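Allow me, if you will, to draw on your knowledge of protein folds for a short while. The matter concerns a single protein, recorded as an amino acid sequence and a row of backbone structure tokens. Kindly check, if you would, that the fold set down in the tokens agrees with what the sequence suggests. You will find the record immediately after this paragraph.
***
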Amino acid sequence: MNNEDEMLHDPVQSAAARLIEIAALTEDIRLTLTEMRKALRDPGGPKPKDLLTKLNELHAAHLKVLAAEEAFNAKTGRTADDDAPDLDAIRADIGRQLDRIRASLGAAGLSG
């Protein structure tokens, strides 16, 4: 069995591959929206009706992306918050690093 066949049978790898595909689609949507904004500024650009049709297609694709992300998170037991940074841990780490810097400089005159 090759890697591609194994990925199709491994739900986690298959979901991860799908998530990569979703990320690429999301980037394509962003780029298309940027191009559309630029085109609207051009007097000789496309007709607003054509842009509206494309915008509706992008909206439908975006909704599919959201549904796929939700399905992936449900399958893996994760939520969007799981990927969020732990701000309290980051603050504590920064505080420890500052303390070490102060200590190494003999920072009696520095305020903390």
Observations:
- The chain has four helices and no strands.
- The longest helix spans residues 11-41.
- The chain has a mean pLDDT of 76.
- The helical segments are 3-9, 11-41, 48-76, 87-105.
